[in-house]
Structure formats: structure tokens, C-alpha cells
């Protein structure tokens, strides 16, 4: 029997509002522990929560971007449990009347469209951070724990998908698309390493063709796209093996060990959690009037699809370029500022941005300095939009050869210097001087009579061999277009 | 430099400072006939004389009270509205830098880092704070016997309870240990002790007074209010308590002006006696005193009729599900992690939680946490919490329909007078029934006041008047006219003895 996986994701997004969800303390990553706290987020006796209006606007933006419907009234509940990082002994969250329901997000993967339903989007607050003492840094075996309440009460939005995902690859693509959307919405920095975007996955298997749902397990805190995909892949293998051996899946939370790739069940709790949800009496219901929702709709930032359309229409980018560029807010913003600040050809800029520049960023982990929010301590690439635009122009005008360009660009990223300076210092200016090139061409023709024969006999692709010879002789600095033209003339002559 | 009392121009023999109401004292202070220092000193002396017996105060801040009074006396011009009034504050309200225990071991040495909004408003208006008053632990109780630090005694009879949970505040007013006091009312905690101690207690409409800094017992019921010697003082204090607080989402701007009280009778005022809250289960002495008072109201022009709250028998059980449910979550923060008591010698977090809460909470608090936790448990939620919410809705409807027929409703404030210490501690249910007349009002969030109706066997009986939401002006005017008609005019032996 063949099995297919059924996957649903729960994503937590920390909002990048100025202040916390229910108090005036600043939201910020890092900093001295317990410096951004007050009676409310420390849960001192008598302190009361007050809703952050900006967070609700962000929540509405997210809900609308996921095409959810927003009921007029939603309410907050208390979710009760004891843990040192939860100062009130309950988390203020939403339960059976969430802010938004029934949305969707489409994901493209290998030119296929996948629709993922969104079950609900709701508002809650983040916990504090436990720092466990002792050697392992984990709770088991620690001799003491410290708590940093700076994160306590940070606005958190939970997005729950329907179990519409059937492969780890689509799960990864979904999370990627969602992250990009959230970045376009300017509601979160979505930094997975720092925990501002966190993902849990529910996964079960069923025979192909079935429509029911099997027993599911939960993979907690998949803190990168890679881990999510790998973890799911491993869990699918584990569950499939169990099922094929006629064994039963146990509903539980499992842990994916990033270093070994092993899946192991978390220590099973003695009894299931009973969160004793009840309506939060300290807050009044959240009323989202039609006017409010319309207002949010009107102020929605431009989303990737719309931006891609604009690039195709206004900047005449090919569809492929427009889509790849807008799939990353960072890249798209940078691209836009290059086209605003320089007269470089948008198409050439997009090609270099998608190609060599993206390659450089991926390999170094650096980020482009753009409008997009990046948390403190991010590795910022030194390349300025002006320098990048001028570089592309120089290549287009033949001042720098493509091969040299590939050498110059990383240098620009590393040093922040202009292309001009680097090219001069390295002596990489392209040779477009006809007489100089002709000398090299003559040499190549004279030295390779056999290949000349072949060309003249009609094997025209041999011209590539001669171009290569000239490039070699000029250490890649010859203008390839000109070399081609001159070669054709000489060989046929 | 202040020489208190040196500007006195009248013969002190004729005035007992302890008998002055806040309104009278303000006038005398404004005229310079008494100083705040002298006034404050009189209460501190009375506390010295009697509070070992009464134990109304958990913490007397005498030194800072004298300083505050001296500062008021020194500022000759621009006196704030309540300048120099020595005030007692229930220990459920946070006061920055002043130990706030909620009468619990859990917060024995807890020093709040901020001041409750309602206290701050009073302070801004110039009050002098005398100290923090005793109460049932976390405001859970009807006799102040649940204080972790020992019971408060009733100034009318030291063998009896002052009621609760604001027993310390009511006793302090009745014993002449302050001119007025702040209390809080979740199921009757202002009105019932006011009734037992022969003073006035007002529970404002839910949402009128900020709860920021009020240590929560049951958030959807809790409301801060005045405990005073007469209606005029309650009327005065209320104006400084009400108003929207940006720190409390459930607070609102008081929707109407609160005009001055007028000297008039009760002509044209329709009062409905709640028929379910008289008769069976009520002390005959209470009923007798209540009936006499009603006759006096009628004589003063009130139209008296019979009103009904058909579902009122379910109010008590519903309250004892909803309030503990909220309490079970509100008290979860007392976990030994960040402040307050932490049990020593424990291994691991779970044991620390359990031991801290075992030592830190008294029996009644534990009982209610368990009640509430159970009522919210999965599988029981609908049967308990869900049903109780329905009862709450029914109570709102009952009151709406009764208050459609009458301007206000009346009842005794409690079914008995002050009972003996220890009389009901062994039987929680009997104790809970002490709030049978007051709890329905909290379920509906309505305003109600208790004023003295008279004495029964030497003990005060309270008359409760219940109004529509946000109608403090008419409620207080009616209470004022009723107070005049009844003409109680008695003080506890502890004040009388100091004449
Ligand atoms: Zn805070």
C-alpha cells in the first residue's frame, strides 16, 4: 500500500510593533535582560492588560493578505498553565472566536500551483525566555534557570493552516511564501534564528486515495526552512515504516534532532494539558467594524504579485525575472532602489541581482541594506544601490567584461568600493581596442591551422575555440562581442 | 514649619474630631479652624487606643501620614479638593513603596512598584493616607476572619465580626480610626461590612472606577468604592474615583454629571422591595428593623411596592462558580518566581510551586482556587461555567425588568446582623449565604449602596438600595433622602466613649 503525508502548519509570528501587546514596554530583540518590563508584563498584582492597537492593525493586514474573512467580533481567552516563563500563569490568546478565519495562500513549486487553506489567524502574546544554567543549556540537568522578561508580552500572531499540504517541499515553499508575504506587509522581521518566525507541523499518513485523516504527530519549533523540510521527511519515513509493519502511530509530540537527523518522542506527559480556557474578563471584545477593515485594506502595502506585475509593465522585465525578484522583499527593494537611483537597464540589473548577487548573499549569509527591517546584528552587505547600478552599466557598455564582472562584484560587496576603483586597481578594464585584439586573433589563427581548416569546411562552432584562445591570451579581458566579429571576418577571409 | 492647631479659634470641648464627617472636616480645615495635622493626629491616637483590639489596620503609616498632613497645612494656597482628609485604604489596593499584603502570607513583604489608579486619584486630590486595612485574604470571605494576620473585630461589639471582606475599612470608619476608607466589592465586600458596622458603603456600577492596582479576585465583579460615615461623604469620594483609566480597558468615562445632593424628601420615588430577599432565612431582628426603616421611607413620600427577581435563588451558586473560576486564574501569578513568598528547600520547579502555594494561601483561598479550577476543567466547563454564565444573563434580565417597574430596588443588606467570631468559620456554605442580598447585584454589575437602617439588639442593620447602571446621582440622592428620613445618627461605642 502506498501512503501519502497530510501536513498542517502552525506558524507563530512576532510582530514588529513599537510596544508590547498589552503594555507600553518596547519590543526589541536582545539587550540587557529584564530592562524592558513593567507591572503588566511582569504580572505584578493588580496590573491589567490594554490592547495594542497597532498590533491589531498588523493582525488585520496579515488576515487580509491571507484572504481570510474577519468576523465583526472576536474575543480573548485565558489559556491557563504554570511555567516560569509565563508570569500571569495564563497566556492571553484567542480561542473559539478568533480574529480571522477561512483564508488561503497559493504556492508555486516546479511550475505547479498548490492551494493551502488557512483555518484561522489569531492574536496572542509571547512568553518570557528561560535560560537554563548548567552545561547543556537545556532544562534537563540544569542546576538553575534564569528568566528574561524582555520578550514577555511581545505581540504574537498565530496562523493555522488546514491539513492541505502533502509534501515536505510544499511545506517549505509555503513557509517561504508566507515569510515573504509577512515581510512585504511590514509586520515582522521574520527572523527564524531569533525566533520571530516559528513553525510547528502536524503530520499524519494515509493510503493514497483516502480522504480521511490518520493519527498525527507534532513536530515542534522547526527553526529553519531546511529543518522543516528535513524533519518532515524523516517523520514521513518513520511513520511509513511503522504503518507498513502494521504498527500504530501514537499521537504525540516528536523531536527532530538537527545534528543526527533522528526523530524521537518527547518525554510523554503524565496527563494531557487542560488549559481551562475562559473569556478574559480584563479585556473587552475586539470589534472589527467594516470601516476598520476597509481602512486596513486601503493601507495594505503592495504584495509580491502586484509588484511583479508592475515590474513587467513599467520596467519591462520578463515574467520570470519579475517573479524571482519579488519572491524576496529584500532583493526586490534593492532592485527598486537601483533602478530609482541609476540609469542602469532594469533587465540587466535584475539578471545580475538574481544571479551573481544572490549567489554571493547565499554563500555569505549577508543581507542587503534596504527598507526591509532587519534585526540588530544582522550581517549587512556593503554593496550600495548606486555602485551596483553603475557596475551593471559598465558591463552593459563593454567597459568591463562579463567574466571580469564576476570577479569585481563580490569585491564590491566585501569592500563597499565602486566598480571603477576595483577595475582600475586590478587592471580589469575590457580590451576593446581593435588593433590589440587583431594581434591576438592573428596569433591564434596562425597557431591552429587544423581548426582553421575545420571552420572553413563549414564547422562553424569551432569559432568558440578561437574565442577561448583569445580570452586566454588576454586573461579574460577581451571584449567577446568584438572578438567574435573580428574572428568571423578573418576566418572567412 | 507648621504649628498644628495653633490657629484654632473655637472651643474644642464641643467638638469630637472623630465624629466629624469628611465633608464637615474639609469645611473646618478650609476655614482654618482645624489643621490636617491635628485631624490626622486625632485618628492616630484613636488607632493607638483601640486598634490592638479592633485590628482594623494591617499597617499604620503614621509617620508619613503626619508628613503628608504637615505638607498640606504648610501649603496655604491652592488646597486640592480633598486636602488633608485622613483616609484608610484596603490592603487589596497597591500603594507604591508601602507593603501591600492582601492579608495573605503570600505577599507578606510585598512592596508594590506602582500605586493603584483610584488611590492615586485620591492622593492627587490631597488625602492623607493613614495605612492599609485588614480584609479577608485576597478579598475572599464575609467576616475578615480569613485574614492571614488575624481577624478584625466589630467596633459595636468586639466579640463579633465586622463583616467582610472590607471588614478592616468598615471597622476603621466605625471605630473613628479614619474619616473614611476605600473598600472593594466583589460579592458584597463593601456593603455587607458597612451594614455590620453601621456605616455607609457604596459599590459603584462595574466599570465606573479603575481596577488598575486593585489586586484581582474576580475581575468581572470587582469594583472599588467608598466606605464612609454618611451618604454625603460617599457622594464626595465617588466623584474622585470615577472616570476612564487608560490602564483599565473595562473602565469607562462616567456618562453623567454627579450633581450636588439636595435636601428633599422621597416624593415620587418608586422603591421595590425584592420579595425574594426578605422573609425566610432572615433574622427577625433584621426584618423588624428593615420594616421600620421602610415605613419611614414611605412616610417621607416614597412609593413602596413589591418587586421580584425570579432567578435570584441561582445567583449564589452561579457566583460561586464564576468568581472562583476567575480567581483560579487571577491567583496563578502567585507562584514564587518573581515576588512575594517563595518556599525554600524545594527541588525543582513543580515542588517549588506546590510548596509556595501550600504555605502561602489560606484554606478559603485554596478552596476557591480548587472550585474554580474544577469548574473550568475540560468536561465540566459547560455544566458549570457555561450554566453560571446563563444565570448571570438571567440576573441581568431580572434586574432590567424589576428596574423597569421601579426607580430603585431595596432589601436588607444582609440576612443577619454581625455574627460572633468563629460562628460560621466551620461551615463555608452558611458563610457564603451572608452575601445572599448583595451577590445578585454584582452579577448584574449594578450600583448599590448600604446605609444604616437602625439597630437590632444593639447591632446595626443595613438597608440596601440598588439602582440602574450608571445612575449614581439618583441612587445617592435617594440614599441621602432615605438617610435623612431614617435619622440613624448613631456611632459605635468606641467613638462615643471618646466624647
Ligand atoms: Zn511591560
Describe this structure in words.
- Chain A is of the alpha+beta class and 493 residues long.
- Chain A folds into three domains: 3-292, no CATH class; 302-426, no CATH class; 434-492, Arc Repressor Mutant, subunit A, CATH 1.10.10.
- Chain A is 39% helix and 18% strand.
- Chain A has helices at residues 53-65, 168-184, 225-244, 290-298, 304-314, 319-326, 329-341, 346-364, 385-396, 402-415, 419-426, 434-447, 449-456, 463-473, 480-492, and strands at 3-14, 73-74, 76-80, 90-94, 100-109, 112-125, 129-132, 145-148, 155-161, 197-207, 217-219, 253-256, 263-265, 278-279, 286-287.
- Chain A has an eight-stranded mixed sheet.
- In chain A, a hairpin with a 2-residue loop joins strand 5 and strand 6.
- Chain A is elongated, with a radius of gyration of 29 Å.
- The N and C termini of chain A lie far apart (70 Å).
- The model of chain A has no long low-confidence stretch (mean pLDDT 90).
- Chain B has 499 residues and is α/β, with parallel strands linked by helices.
- Chain B has a single domain (14-311, 396-496), classed as Alpha-Beta Complex (Amidase signature (AS) enzymes), CATH 3.90.1300.10.
- Chain B has 16 helices and eleven strands.
- Chain B has helices at 22-30, 36-54, 62-74, 117-124, 167-174, 191-197, 231-241, 284-299, 315-330, 349-360, 363-376, 382-405, 428-433, 439-444, 472-486, 493-496, and strands at 57-60, 86-90, 128-133, 180-185, 200-203, 223-228, 270-274, 303-307, 408-412, 448-456, 459-466.
- Chain B has an eleven-stranded mixed sheet with strand order 1-3-2-4-6-5-10-11-9-7-8, with helices on both faces.
- In chain B, helix 8 links the parallel strand 7 (270-274) and strand 8.
- Chain B is globular.
- Chain B starts with 21 loop residues before the first helix and ends with a helix.
- Mean pLDDT of chain B is 95; it is low at 1-11.
- Classes of the chains: A alpha+beta (493), B alpha/beta (499).
- The complex binds zinc ion.
- Residues 20, 23, 25, 37-38, 40-41, 153 of chain A line the site of zinc ion.
- The site of zinc ion has 8 residues of chain A, from loops.
